[in-house]
Amino acid sequence: MGKRTDKTQLEKALEILAEKLTPEEYSKVTSVMSLLFVGHQFGMSSGGFEFINLAINIKKQHKKNKYNKTLHGNVISLKPKG
């Protein structure tokens, strides 16, 4: 088994999820992972390419929404005393 398919990689990924997500979000993500593991396809092709494209597109959209916010809220208005 290569490094990408080692059980420790799965453990590390689950630790990251547990650290970053709320308990409810973690439960939802791991439930979906379990369904994928037992072979549920969620209406997608069995080859996994639709899942990969979905994951990539969601990551791109999230990155776009996260970093395209304006910084106007961070501007401090300075008024002269007087």
Question: Span between N and C termini?
Answer: 72 Å
The quaternary state of the protein chains shown equals single chain
* Secondary-structure element series: HHH
Q: What is the gyration radius calculated from CA atoms?
A: 20 Å
Number of DSSP-assigned strands? 0
Count of helical stretches: 3
Shape annotation? elongated
Low-pLDDT residue spans? none
Share of helical residues: 55-70%
The main β sheet shows up as: none
Which structural class best describes the helix and strand composition?
A: mainly alpha
Could you give a quick summary of the protein structure above?
About 60% of the residues lie in helices and about 0% in strands.
Describe the model:
It is a single chain. The chain has helices at residues 7-20, 23-37, 49-67. It has 82 residues and is mainly α. It starts with 6 loop residues before the first helix and ends in a 15-residue tail after the last helix. It has 2 domains: 1-38, no CATH class; 44-69. It contains 3 helices and no strands. Helices cover 59% and strands 0% of the residues. The model has no long low-confidence stretch (mean pLDDT 84).
Question: Which keywords apply here?
Answer:
single chain; 82 residues; mainly alpha; 2 domains; 3 helices; 0% strand
Q: What's the layout of helices and strands?
A:
Elements: H1 7-20, H2 23-37, H3 49-67
